[in-house]
Design goal:
This protein is mainly alpha-helical and about 120 residues long. It folds into two domains: about 45 residues, Arc Repressor Mutant, subunit A; about 55 residues, no CATH class. About 60% of the residues lie in helices and about 0% in strands. The chain is built from six helices and no strands. The longest helix has 16 residues.
C-alpha cells in the first residue's frame, strides 16, 4: 500500500531513508524513524544499488589504456628475442619489465596477469 503524501514528500522520505542507511542505521531503525515498513526500506536500498550499478564500474581505473594494451600485444608477438632475452618465451616477470620499459608503469606479477587476461 502506498504511504500517504505527495510525490515530492515521498521522494524526500526515500532520500532521508537512504541517508540514514548510509550513516549505518539498521533497516528497522530507518523504517521506524521514517515511518515506513522495512520492506520499503529494503526495496529502496536495492533500487539504489541498481542505480549505482549502472553508473560506472567499481574499482580503480586501469593504469594502461586500450591503446597501450594493443601496443603491448604487438610487442609480445615480436617475441622475447626481439626484446633482448636469450630464450624466446614470455613469463609474468618479463611482461612486467616490458610494460615498465614501454610505458613506465610497474605491475606485480598478479597485476600483469590481470592486464593480460583483460587483453
Amino acid at each position: 500500500m502506498r504511504p500517504y503524501g505527495a510525490s515530492k514528500q515521498l521522494d524526500m522520505r526515500r532520500q532521508k531513508a537512504l541517508r540514514l542507511l548510509k550513516r549505518g542505521k539498521s533497516v528497522a531503525q530507518v523504517a521506524a524513524q521514517v515511518g515506513v515498513t522495512r520492506c520499503s526500506v529494503y526495496r529502496w536500498r536495492r533500487e539504489k544499488r541498481v542505480e549505482r550499478k549502472n553508473t560506472r564500474p567499481p574499482g580503480k581505473p586501469a593504469y594502461v589504456s586500450s591503446e597501450q594494451i594493443n601496443q603491448l600485444k604487438e610487442e609480445l608477438l615480436q617475441g622475447a628475442y626481439a626484446h633482448g632475452y636469450s630464450e624466446d618465451y614470455w613469463n609474468l616477470d618479463r611482461i612486467g619489465h616490458l610494460i615498465w620499459d614501454l610505458f613506465g608503469i610497474r605491475y606485480t606479477p598478479s597485476g600483469v596477469w590481470r592486464v593480460c587476461w583483460i587483453a
